[in-house]
Each structure stands twice: as structure tokens, then as C-alpha cells.
What does this fold into?
Amino acid sequence: MKKLLLLFCLSLFLACENSAEKQLQSKSKPVDSTENFGIVIHGGAGTILKKNMSDSLEKEYKAKLEEAIKTGHKILADGGNALDAVQKTINVMENSPLFNAGKGAVFTNAETNELDASIMDGKTLNAGAVAGVTTVKNPINLAWEVMENSEHVMMAGKGAEKFAEERGIELVTPEYFYTENRFKSLQRLKKRESKKTELDHNANETAFTDPFIKDSKFGTVGCAALDKNGNLAAGTSTGGMTNKKWGRIGDAPIIGAGTYANNKTAAVSATGWGEFFIRGVVAYDISALMEYKNMSLQEAAREVIQKKNPELGGNGGIIAIDHAGNISMEFNTAGMYRAHMDKEGNLKIGIYEKD
Ligand code: ASP
It folds into this structure.
């Protein structure tokens, strides 16, 4: 009997040791390289209608979207990280006057260009953001510097520009951002605003409820990427909204509103009427619905963009990619410049609702 008991204890001990060893092995296993990767971008959402677009302009947009997404895709295909892909992809769109970011940014009421940007790392939840900068050629690069080389998350205005100078970020004179189109848009909007003020003299309306601001085209740029190591990142860069006043800052540089990334869920970049994206904490809301309600990325994005955002009175869209490489390009406006490329290199570009 004693022998039997001893034998039983010995086998129990051996079994426990075996499973402890197994556990240790699985914990120390290197990060599983999935080899799955993908990238998705937007160049702004708004009243983008086929009837208002010439064939040649449409071609220009598509070519630039393709150039941008291929830049990031190559980085990912070569084994580069998601953050790098997001930053370099956004740089291509920031440098193009077609989009409302970097060169080609919209004008403020004071006829200046004030730029906002943010970037987030889904692996560490590190993030960087800048707001209201006027001399930084590529605001997403400064957001990256804030994230990587400062103990802060967000910097604004002159302080952010001082930091840019110290970090050797490329600076330009404010004239660099000038484009005739954007300047004319401001003049048109100002004219309509002064007419409307006359008409609405007695109506108790604020600029936020003003329908022509709601209808103005957007054009922010954003990117979300999944790299071969299973890491997600997202970034957004913008000139904000035409005719903005009083140092107004939108959702693009606000982590959780315009940009969010978390390896557990998804990487998201938003575009649209910023005030509503801030109030709805849109990018984080999509991630939270996935995390706490177990929704898929597409379900969460639809719930937020097709239901919650319009119910609040906002409009716009998002692009996102999840940890498995699923993507979403959801918008509630007439159009959104957008593109997606998967690991096989299949490219999808869209502008209008039906694309
Ligand atoms: N969301 C941006 C802002 O409100 C505008 C845009 O997406 O075009 O500043």
C-alpha cells in the first residue's frame, strides 16, 4: 500500500513539473511572426461627388493614393514596422497639394495654415501629437518625435515648433503651405458667412451648427497598418477645417478621437467634422466595442460611423485594420478618398460611395 502511494506521489510530481516546464516554454517563445500584414489609408471624407470631379483630377487623386499606399506596403513587405509604414505613407500625402495636410492645408479665418497630427503605436500604446503648428513641413514626423523623443504625448503651437527645431525636424516658411485652391475656398466660405450673418442676424446660431461648415469638403489624411510582427499603428495629419478660428483644434491630433491603435483590437484613423469625432471619442470607441463587446472591426466601425456619429450630428469616416488584417473603410458622407492593400499586394482604391 505504502509503495503504491509513493508511486502515485512520484507520478503526480513528474506531471506537475512537466506542465510547469511547458508553460515556461510557451511564455519564452519568441513573438509569433504571422507574416500577415496590410495597410489602409484615407485622404479625407466629405461631399465628394462624381459630377463635380474632372476625369483628370480623379486620375491624379488615384495616382497619389496608389503612390502613398505602395510606399507603406513596401516597408511592410520588407519586414519594416507598422509605425514606419504609417509615417512614410502619410508623408507622401502631406507633400501633395491634393490633400488637406502639409502642403495644401486649408486656411484659417486669419488666412494662416495651422496643422495638426498624431501617431500611435498599438504595441506599447505610446503616442505623439502636435497641434496648431505653422512651420513644420511634415507634422506627422513631429508627432513621431514627440512620441519617441520626449516624455510628453501632445505639444502645441510655438512650443511644438521649438521642439521641432531642437530635434532637427524640417521647417519651412508659412508660405510653403499656400495653394490657390484652398485660399479661394476660404474666400468663398467667408463671403457666404458674411451673407449668412446678415440673414441670421436674429437667429441664435453658433459656427458649430452652421450648415455650410458641415458641407465643406474635408481632406485630412490618415493611415493604419499591421506589420509582419503583428504590431498595429495608426496616424492622422490635417490642416483642420477651412475658416477655423480662435486656435481651433480638431480630432486629428487627439488620441482616441482621430487616431487610436491597440494590438488587442485595431488601428484607426478618422476624418470628418472634428468636433463630433472628439465628443464621440470615435477611434477609441471602435476599439472599445471590439474589446468589451467582442464586436468584429466591421461591426464596431459600422455602429460608430453609421449610427452613433450621425445621431450626434456629425459626419465623416474612418479607415482601420485589426490584428488579423481585416480592414474597414466606413463613411457616412458622399465620398471618402481611400485605398487598401493586402499582403498579396491586391490594391483597392475608392473615392465615391459606390466604388
Ligand atoms: N477631422 C478634421 C478636423 O476636424 C477635418 C477633416 O477630417 O478633414 O480638423
